[in-house]
Structures are given as structure tokens and as C-alpha cells.
Write a structure and sequence with these properties.
Elements (H helix, E strand, L loop, with lengths): L11 H4 L14 H9 L38 H12 L13 E2 L5 E2 L5 H20 L3 H4 L3 H4 L1 H16 L6 H17 L4 H13 L2 H4 L16 E3 L2 H13 L5 H9 L5 H12 L5 H12 L10 H20 L4 H6 L2 E4 L1 H7 L10 E4 L12 H7 L7 H12 L23 H9 L3 H4 L1 H9 L5 E2 L2 E2 L14 E4 L5 E4 L2 H10 L1 H16 L8 H13 L4 H8 L3 H4 E3 L8
Antiparallel strand pairs: 1-2, 3-10, 4-5, 6-7, 8-9
Helix pairs in contact: 4-9, 7-8, 7-9, 8-9, 11-12, 11-13, 13-26, 14-15, 19-22, 24-25, 25-26
Length: about 575
């Protein structure tokens, strides 16, 4: 049925108080509004950052406690798409063309700050989604029979049941009343059809901060202890668990555990985590985690067929290592069974592969092994068809070893002309040899990157293309904890990397950062140590690592955020 008015009668977005752009003057009521209107949504409690380099084996490390707040952030594009698919049955992925996420302080992607552009994207998507949903309204989607129950009873039950799923918690009485008031106004005052009125109610909920933000506390004030610590509610905890492990809202089983409060019990939380880890949706966690560590998340959104193939190839490799293998760093960084199609095979110099479909190929283990020799990573950290040692080294040093860059030195040394008689390595050695950054940054970054000098972009090379000189991919890297990694080429460098305490601890810390959505603090070190010890005891299985994170106190407890008030 069609609307009986030519324009939307009530701006649903402003009705529910969603306003975060500079040009908008409305405010949001309740605890969520206190943060959005008066505080810093990205702040996560008192700042007490962890030291850049931390050895979790140190017995002097702090006990497991909570070291930070819960930064307020909106759903990512993937989370939004998964959420509307679960809520509305709509698999059109409307958020895919939205503004790309940016890298947050914890090193992982987060949505951009809300601006007029983002608000416009939300409004347009909610309108389109609601219009499609109302066309499919029947007893099943409505959860009620109109003929037997009547319109008002069905609208009331729908608002509460749909709202429970959309907000990942039960509606407060005031919220249910406001939404029913909207439905009544649309149906009676504006004389819209039942379906059109329900459609606009759905649109309003999709534009609500309670849908768009990870904030399942609702309208209640949090209860903080004397130290400002707040235990997450069952609904907050269920949502955090589900979005961490599956990038999707809680399923029926987890939602029931939230309703009963059972998920607040550590044993039940652990059981739910293990159950979710066994679902197909958990594949998204590892794909996202690894793509972000390698900084190649953008390849999947590319329109270039070769970049899309690189992305699909890496994903197939990760799925094989995590779900068919032991999900260990060794399999991820040293496995030599790649997935290629005809176009990718040309990049790798492999003959005998035809067609567009990816097929498994046993690669030369001296040249191709694991994620660091995949084409997407090498292309992203290279420079066209050449290498770029500092960029490759920094990616490894910061993302895989959790090493820090010394402060107080120039970020980029002055450029010098590249002598055609010099290899890329020789050029960079000359570039920084007289500068302060030579013994600070570049003694670290370059020697983590020189190991991959055999790769010009993603392609293998034995000699420098400018002058025919043999490639020198040997070196000695001092690791963050002070150990020495001596290598003669990319293979033994990566083997040393995999065996290092630094890599193993860094993976535990990175998974922790992803799970809590913020930078780790001194108060988190004890919890990270527990997570790391579980990871080691599980033979470095990344699936066990992800599950173990939920047992840290920082996963279920937080500090008050900036601008937040409590009971």
C-alpha cells in the first residue's frame, strides 16, 4: 500500500533524538546522551597506558583487573550489514559503499566520527530497509495475527519484540511508549496504512543511537563501585561477545542467556564463547583480525580484479590454516599451500594454472610461505615493483612484535637521489647512515624489512632490476625484549619470528585490544598475561586465544567513560 502523504510526516531521526553532527542542535537523553552530547565518545576512562614494550612473563606484572572504559562507537559497515541481515532478513549489504573505517588508537579499524555525511548514509539506508521490510509484513514477520489480535495489540507486541532485537536489549517503558506514540500518530493523525506506519516505526528504530551504537545499557545509569568500575549488564556482555567473535548481533541462544542473566556467570560466558567459536560466523573474526594486522582490509573492497583475487586468495589461505589446520602462527606464517587463479599465478610466476577459480597450489617453500609472502601484503608494503624496507619493517615491528618506535627522532629522513648503481637496500643504508634515526628508527625498521628484499612488490627477484646486483636479504634484528634474530633470507627470518616470544605475546595483546576496543593500559597487563598463558597452553591455537580473552576481567568490566555519570 502507498503512503497517503507526499512527504515523510515525522523526521524519525530527530524524533528519537539522534544528533551528532556539528550543524545539529538536538540532544540525546539518558546516559548515552551524556556521553554523546557532553563527553568524548572515543574516550575510554582514565588514561594510564601500558608501556609500549611489556613482557607478560614478568612476575611483577599487575594482577588481572580492569584498566579502561568502553569507548562508544557505532557499528562498523560489516557489523551493520550483518545486523540488518539478522534483524530484517536483508542481505543487500547497504553499508558496503559507506565511508571506510579509520584506524583507531588501539591499531584496529573503527567507524569515522559521525558527520552530516554519515547521518545521511544512515537515514538513506534505514528508509530503504524499512520500505523493503514493510512489503514483507505478514503474521510471521509481524509476530502477530492482525485479524484475531487487532492492529494496536499487534503493533504493541511488534514494537517490543522487534525493539528487543534491534537494540539488543528490552525496550524501556518510555521507549516503547514513544514508539507506540509514533505509530498511533502515523496511523490515526496522518491516516497511513498499518504497514506504512509500522515501516516508519522500523525506520525510526534503525536510526536510533541504541541501534547504531554499541551501547546496550539502555536508559539506566550504570552502577559503579568506589573505584569507578562497572560490571557490564547481561545485554552488554552478550552483545560484546557476539560482535567480537562473529561481527553479528546475539543469536537466539545467546539472547536467551542474556534475558535470564546466565551469561553473567563465567562458566556460561565461556560456554557461549566456545559455542560461537564453532559456528561458521566465527570465520569473520580471524579474517578481520589478520587483515587488519597486515593492513590489507581494503583489498576486498577494491574494484580491481587482481586485488580482489589477492584478497580471496588470502582469505582461502586463512580459512585453511585456522579451520582445517591448527590455527597456529606457524601455519599462518610458514604454510606453503596457496590458492591461485590464472591471473594470480602470473604474479607468483607459477605455470599450469588456468581460469578464474582459485585452486590450491603447492608453492616453493623457499620463496612463498605464509601471509608475509602473499601478494596483497607485499604489494601493500612495497613500492610498485620495488621494495620499501622501512614500511615492511614497521608493519612487522609494530603489528606482529608489538615493538615501539623511539620518540623524538625525525619521522621521515630527507630524500636523496637513488644512485642506479645501488640496490634498494644500499640506497636506504646511505639515506640514514649519518642521521639520528639511523641508530633509532631505522636500525629497527630497516632490518625488519631487509629480510624481504627478494620481493619487488609481490614478485620474487634474485637480483636488483636497476643494476643486476644480487639481492642481500640478510641481517640481524634486535627484538623488543632484547634477543637477536639473525637471518640470511625471508624464510629463516620468518621462522625466527614465529619462534619468538615477542610474536606470541603480541598476538595475545592484539586479540585483547580488538576484543575490548581500546588501547591496553597498565591495569590490563595482568589480564593479558592470563590470556597469553592460556594461548601457550593451547599450543598457540588462535581459536583458543580468542575464547580465552572473554575470561579477562576487562572483557566483562569497565571503568566509567568521560562524561558518564553513575548511580
Amino acid at each position: 500500500m502507498t503512503d497517503r502523504v507526499t512527504t515523510r510526516p515525522i523526521p524519525a531521526l530527530l524524533l528519537l533524538g539522534f544528533c551528532a553532527s556539528a550543524g545539529c542542535t538536538a540532544t540525546i537523553d539518558g546516559p548515552l546522551g551524556a556521553i554523546l552530547n557532553d563527553g568524548d565518545p572515543t574516550a575510554s576512562g582514565p588514561a594510564d597506558p601500558a608501556p609500549p614494550t611489556v613482557d607478560l612473563r614478568d612476575p611483577a606484572a599487575s594482577p588481572d583487573t580492569v584498566g579502561g572504559g568502553m569507548p562508544l562507537r557505532s557499528l562498523t559497515r560489516v557489523e551493520y550489514n550483518n545486523t540488518v541481515a539478522a534483524l530484517l532478513g536483508d542481505t543487500s549489504a547497504p553499508a558496503l559503499p559507506w565511508s571506510a573505517e579509520i584506524r583507531g588508537e588501539n591499531g584496529f579499524l573503527q567507524p569515522r566520527p559521525i558527520s552530516d555525511k554519515e547521518i545521511s548514509e544512515y537515514v538513506d539506508a534505514s528508509t530503504a530497509l524499512a520500505n523493503q521490510f514493510k512489503k514483507r509484513l505478514d503474521d510471521t514477520t509481524l509476530g502477530c495475527n492482525l485479524e484475531s489480535a487487532g492492529e494496536e495489540a499487534c503493533a504493541t507486541s511488534f514494537v517490543r519484540s522487534f525493539g528487543r532485537k534491534a537494540f539488543r536489549r528490552p525496550l524501556a517503558e518510555s521507549e516503547a511508549s514513544d514508539l507506540m506514540g509514533l505509530w498511533t500518530t502515523l496511523r490515526q493523525t496522518h491516516t497511513l496504512s498499518f504497514e506504512d506506519a509500522i515501516g516508519l516505526v522500523v525506520e525510526a528504530m534503525l536510526q536510533s543511537p541504541s541501534f547504531m551504537y554499541h551501547w546496550e545499557l539502555g536508559l539506566e545509569l550504570p552502577h559503579a563501585d568506589a573505584d569507578g568500575r562497572v560490571s557490564l549488564t547481561s545485554y552488554e556482555l552478550a552483545a560484546r561477545l557476539s560482535y567480537f567473535l562473529t561481527q553479528s548481533p546475539p543469536d537466539e541462544t545467546l539472547a536467551a542467556a542474556a534475558d535470564s542473566g546466565a551469561v553473567l556467570q563465567p562458566s556460561e560466558l565461556q560456554a557461549q564463547a566456545e559455542r560461537l567459536m564453532a559456528t561458521d560466523q566465527a570465520q569473520a573474526l580471524f579474517q578481520d583480525f589478520i587483515a587488519q594486522l597486515l593492513n590489507v582490509s581494503d583489498f576486498g573492497a577494491s574494484n580491481d580484479p587482481l586485488q580482489q583475487a589477492m584478497d580471496s586468495s588470502r582469505r582461502a589461505f586463512v580459512d585453511q590454516a585456522v579451520w582445517s589446520g591448527g590455527a597456529t602462527p606457524q601455519e599462518l606464517l610458514l604454510g606453503s599451500s596457496f590458492f591461485l587463479n590464472e591471473e594470480l599465478a602470473k604474479v607468483y610466476g607459477v605455470a599450469g594454472v588456468s581460469g578464474q577459480a582459485l585452486v590450491p597450489v603447492a608453492m616453493d617453500p623457499a620463496q612463498r610461505f605464509g601471509l608475509l609472502t602473499h601478494a596483497d601484503y607485499l604489494a601493500k608494503t612495497g613500492a610498485g615493483n620495488d621494495s620499501l624496507p622501512p614500511r615492511r619493517g614497521r608493519a612487522i615491528w609494530e603489528n606482529l612484535l608489538c615493538g615501539s618506535i623511539p620518540a623524538g627522532v625525525p619521522a621521515v629522513p630527507p630524500e636523496i637521489t637513488h644512485d642506479p648503481n645501488d640496490t634498494t637496500r644500499e640506497h636506504f643504508e646511505k639515506k640514514v647512515e649519518t642521521l639520528a634515526c639511523a641508530s633509532a628508527c631505522h636500525a629497527i625498521l630497516d632490518y625488519a624489512g631487509f629480510a624481504f628484499e627478494n620481493y619487488g612488490g609481490p614478485e620474487w627477484r634474485d637480483t636488483d632490476p636497476r643494476n643486476g646486483k644480487p639481492i642481500n636479504a640478510s641481517g640481524l634484528l634486535t627484538l623488543p625484549f632484547g634477543g637477536k634474530l639473525s637471518y640470511t633470507g625471508p624464510r629463516d627470518f620468518t621462522e625466527g619470528l614465529v619462534a619468538s616470544e615477542e610474536l606470541q605475546q603480541c598476538l595475545a595483546r592484539q586479540m585483547f585490544r580488538l576484543a575490548v576496543g581500546r588501547v591496553d593500559t597498565k591495569g590490563d597487563i595482568g589480564g593479558q598475561r592470563v590470556v597469553y598463558e592460556t594461548f601457550k597452553a593451547a599450543a598457540l591455537d588462535l581459536k583458543a586465544l580468542a575464547v580465552s580473552v572473554v575470561s579477562a576481567k576487562a572483557f566483562s568490566t569497565r571503568l566509567l567513560n568521560e562524561g558518564e555519570v553513575s548511580k
